């Protein structure tokens, strides 16, 4: 799931723009300048009439470019629903000039993003056969709308059948748009309720008669299989008797199988974005971090946003999408595996991770050093190679070379052994489930610590991401696939608790896997205070807040430790630190919670009070946590937990503490 496509995503209830940068030449003043697509963001709409919004955009461009004709030709798209803004072909100097306009909040160039790619929900305890539980209480997510920002959709998939669904929720204001091989009347229904595409800036010169541009349809139909996978995992309908060449046989379904799917924006309840960008990781307020900006706008309007941690693991500090208002999802394996038995000449059998559908065969095994290529001598043989950090060849390189020389097969190993046995037998894949397959974080899943905001623990949560059976019914892997799984669970929670904020939904997932009793809430103002604590400039906090007047931070600026997260992370502990958390009772009105602390090794945790009493008048309570270290030198991160329990609900938050005698920057 690593096909590179180009994206620009922005704003609450945002739209996917499949926009590769298109260059043209502007003549003037003796010098020529290239134009490229820029996004001009204007904040909140000043008109409810979309046509008036677009007209104001054209007037702004006309004042910049000098004529209505140039303004119309420059315009790529007008954003006029959740916010006001437009995409246009501009030179760098024009972009700089329009950024000085008093109504312009921000101007950003088009940016490239990549996709981060049956048993999942049974494994998570959401079985449709159970008469009780979240899936039952939520009516399988009926009438919740999940927005998917991705590569498009293959609407004929049975995952998008609307059989048994009622009418489209009246609050839905979106639409389905016709395009190449996409008939809105035929392909959209009461399940797939919205689908749009944005390609005005995508290599018009490469458009073919078929309406396909560089493997993309001029429609919401996807050419590269990613969006359909994501959508079906989040909210796919029940599809029986599916498998990947016989593996994983069963019924495929999404996390919220009766939720509605919108392949873009509209009035949605949850947004799942399985996209990311390569390292370096951008700060939350970086003008190029369009996901962070768009997600902030969404949560400000009560819409939960989920994004993948990324596929750059297992390296530390590789986690993406680190804004605290985003639910960042890591990937794990399942308790199921489809390994391929490899029997060596000495009858020792190893289990390869990748499934194979080939019949059993035996061949000579040869080894290719990581500094060399696979040559013609490998024809008809099995090739063993090792991928290390120093390897000159990648896995894709070896796969291409294997096919070119007609090698019988390829084994890619991650660790070298000096002994290579001269023959090997490969058998058809088998299925393993249960305790023998331990659940752990997938190797490819990006890891913390958070490289930008170390006081924010990331990723937030993990879900199955290895050999996931989804739309198309082939087993795929990637944190792209873990993200919609959690989005489906969020949709179920939203169906049961429609008045919960995005932070409350996130807290419920992290602290108790959905039945919380207590939640840690936060709103847009709390996140603005966090940005103040992070020493971000007020002008950038103003921009991300969609405000025309300058946002003023409190004086003195708050502590980064006091953002009301369902976790406590202290990366630079030296002297004693005291912080505050606030919990809201969402369980029985009259409740008493007692404290259980498991401190990290070498760390002392003191909590006041150690007992929380809720009643009809007391729904929120705060507690203070004092943290001190017994370490005498710098340490690694040590982990523990803090739990509030009423005997029924166990509300657990993680503790991650690192002692740093040398203080790198202020807490």
Q: Layout of helices and strands, plus pairs?
A:
Elements: E1 5-6, E2 8-10, E3 15-17, E4 24-28, E5 31-43, H1 50-65, H2 68-74, E6 75-79, E7 84-91, H3 92-99, E8 106-109, E9 112-115, H4 120-123, H5 134-137, E10 145-149, H6 184-187, E11 192-195, E12 212-213, E13 216-217, H7 227-235, E14 239-244, E15 247-252, E16 260-263, E17 270-273, E18 275-276, H8 290-300, E19 304-308, E20 327-332, E21 336-337, E22 340-344, E23 349-352, E24 361-368, E25 382-386, H9 395-405, E26 409-413, E27 423-426, E28 432-433, E29 461-464, E30 468-469, E31 475-476, H10 479-496, H11 502-512, E32 518-519, H12 524-533, H13 538-544, E33 568-573, E34 577-585, E35 591-598, E36 603-608, E37 611-614, E38 620-629, E39 637-645, E40 650-659
Parallel strand pairs: 10-16, 10-17, 11-16, 17-19, 19-20, 20-29, 24-25, 25-26, 33-40
Antiparallel strand pairs: 1-9, 2-3, 4-5, 5-7, 5-8, 6-7, 9-18, 12-13, 14-15, 21-28, 22-23, 22-27, 24-27, 30-31, 32-34, 34-38, 35-37, 35-39, 36-38, 39-40
Helix pairs in contact: 1-2, 7-10
Description:
There is one protein chain. The protein is an alpha+beta fold and 667 residues long. The protein is built from 13 helices and 40 strands. Helix 1 (50-65) crosses helix 2 (68-74) and helix 7 (227-235) packs parallel to helix 10.
Number of helices: 13
State the total count of DSSP E strands: 40
Distance between the first and last residues' Cα: 39 Å
Q: Give helix % range.
A: 10-25%
Widest sheet: strand ordering = 11-16-10-17-19-20-29
Silhouette: globular
Profile the largest sheet. Answer: 7 strands, parallel
Strand content: 25-35%
């Amino acid at each position: 799931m690593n096909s590179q496509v180009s994206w620009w995503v922005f704003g609450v209830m945002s739209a996917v723009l499949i926009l590769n940068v298109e260059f043209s030449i502007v003549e003037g003043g003796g010098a020529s300048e290239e134009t490229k697509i820029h996004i001009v963001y204007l904040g909140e709409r000043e008109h409810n009439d979309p046509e008036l919004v677009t007209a104001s955009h054209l007037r702004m461009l006309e004042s910049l470019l000098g004529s209505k004709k140039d303004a119309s030709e420059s315009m790529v798209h007008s954003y006029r629903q959740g916010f006001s803004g437009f995409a246009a072909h501009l030179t760098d100097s024009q972009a700089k000039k329009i950024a000085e306009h008093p109504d312009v909040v921000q101007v950003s160039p088009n940016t490239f993003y990549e996709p981060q790619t049956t048993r999942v929900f049974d494994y998570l305890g959401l079985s449709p056969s159970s008469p009780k539980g979240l899936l039952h209480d939520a009516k399988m997510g009926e009438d919740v709308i999940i927005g998917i920002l991705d590569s498009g959709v293959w609407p004929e998939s049975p995952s998008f059948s609307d059989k048994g669904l009622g009418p489209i929720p009246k609050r839905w204001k979106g639409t389905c748009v016709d395009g190449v091989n996409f008939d809105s009347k035929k392909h959209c229904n009461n399940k797939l309720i919205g689908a749009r595409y944005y390609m005005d800036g995508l290599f018009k010169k490469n458009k073919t008669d078929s309406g396909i541009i560089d493997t993309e349809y001029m429609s919401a139909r996807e050419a590269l299989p990613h969006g359909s996978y994501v959508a079906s995992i989040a909210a796919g309908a029940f599809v029986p008797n599916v498998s990947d060449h016989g593996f994983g046989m069963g019924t495929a379904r999404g996390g919220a199988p009766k939720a509605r799917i919108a392949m873009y924006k509209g009035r949605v309840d949850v947004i799942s974005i399985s996209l990311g960008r390569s390292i370096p990781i951008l700060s939350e307020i970086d003008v190029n971090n369009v996901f962070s900006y768009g997600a902030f706008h969404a949560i400000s309007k009560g819409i939960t946003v989920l994004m993948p941690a990324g596929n750059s693991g297992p390296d530390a500090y590789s986690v993406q999408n680190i804004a605290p208002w985003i639910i960042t999802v890591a990937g794990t394996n399942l308790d199921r595996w489809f390994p391929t038995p490899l029997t060596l000449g000495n009858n020792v059998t190893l289990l390869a991770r990748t499934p194979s559908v080939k019949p059993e065969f035996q061949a000579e095994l040869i080894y290719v050093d990581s500094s060399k290529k696979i040559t013609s001598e490998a024809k008809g043989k099995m090739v063993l190679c090792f991928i290390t950090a120093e390897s000159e060849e990648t896995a894709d390189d070896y796969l291409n070379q294997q096919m070119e020389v007609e090698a019988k097969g390829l084994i890619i190993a991650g660790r070298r052994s000096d002994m290579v046995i001269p023959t090997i037998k490969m058998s058809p894949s088998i299925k393993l489930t249960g305790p023998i397959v331990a659940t752990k974080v997938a190797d490819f899943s990006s890891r913390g610590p958070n490289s930008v905001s170390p006081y924010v623990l990331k990723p937030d949560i993990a879900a199955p991401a290895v050999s996931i059976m989804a739309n198309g019914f082939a087993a795929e892997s990637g944190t792209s696939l873990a993200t919609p799984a959690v989005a489906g669970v969020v949709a179920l929670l939203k169906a049961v608790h429609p008045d919960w904020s995005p932070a409350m939904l996130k807290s419920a997932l992290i602290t108790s896997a959905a039945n919380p009793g207590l939640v840690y809430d936060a709103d847009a103002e709390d996140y603005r205070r966090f940005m103040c604590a992070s020493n971000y400039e007020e002008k950038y906090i103003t921009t991300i807040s969609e405000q025309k007047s300058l946002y003023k931070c409190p004086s003195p600026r708050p502590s980064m430790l006091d953002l009301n997260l369902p976790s406590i992370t202290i990366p630079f502990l030296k002297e004693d630190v005291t912080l505050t958390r606030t919990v809201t009772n969402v369980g029985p009105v009259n409740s008493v919670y007692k404290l259980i602390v498991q401190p990290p090794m070498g760390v002392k945790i003191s909590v006041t009070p150690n007992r929380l009493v809720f009643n009809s008048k007391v729904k929120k309570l705060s507690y203070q946590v004092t943290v001190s270290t017994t370490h005498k030198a710098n340490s690694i991160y040590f982990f523990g937990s803090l739990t509030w329990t009423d005997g029924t609900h166990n509300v657990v938050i993680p503790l991650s503490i690192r002692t740093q005698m040398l203080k790198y920057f202020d807490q």
